[in-house]
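I am writing to request your help with a piece of structural work I have in hand. Here, with my thanks, is the record as I have it:
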Amino acid sequence: MEKGPFKEYMRESEPGRVLKGYAWSTAIGLQAVDGLKPSEYLIDTAIQNIEGKITIKEAQSLIDSYYEERPAHLSDDERTEEADKVSSRIAEILSETAFSFSPNEYISIHRKLFQGIYKHAGKIRDYNITKKEWVLDGATIMYGSASELRATLEYDFSQEKDFSYKGLSMDEIIHHLAVFVSRLWQIHIFGEGNTRTTAVFFSPCKLYESAKRYS
């Protein structure tokens, strides 16, 4: 979390810069999950936002204009555009304090991240998939059946809401949350973008708590 172009901001005493530094660092780091790397323009724009020179909305507008003004690009450049736009959207979500622990919030995050990038943004997939996952050493995974996705998602959320953390140690709490998040990810309710969506969904509360420690 403390690596990269924003580490100096995460060491500052000013709460706003610390939170923005963490948000942008996380946003850019998550692109590597799908082998994506944001542009230098995105880094420079993010720094302007962290320093308070522009708002997050202005940062997103600059990024949109940057790609609108560029000539037709190659497929690699298109993936860079995805990385830049999704990074700015993640940074915005992680900077917000409003959060609802629900399936609708989870789906909404996917829509916010990938609208205009994936046609299926915010839509539950209607087909079955299997994938080789590098995060699991190349193992082939069969994800949740398309016909059961919504029901499975709602069941996992209801189980988590009913779970009591009373009397648990911090290690036990962390283990339980890790199991819940891994199950949420393995459902893979979207055609693409599941890992980034799950990570963002799991991050708002943690980042907010981190920010409060600096206030």
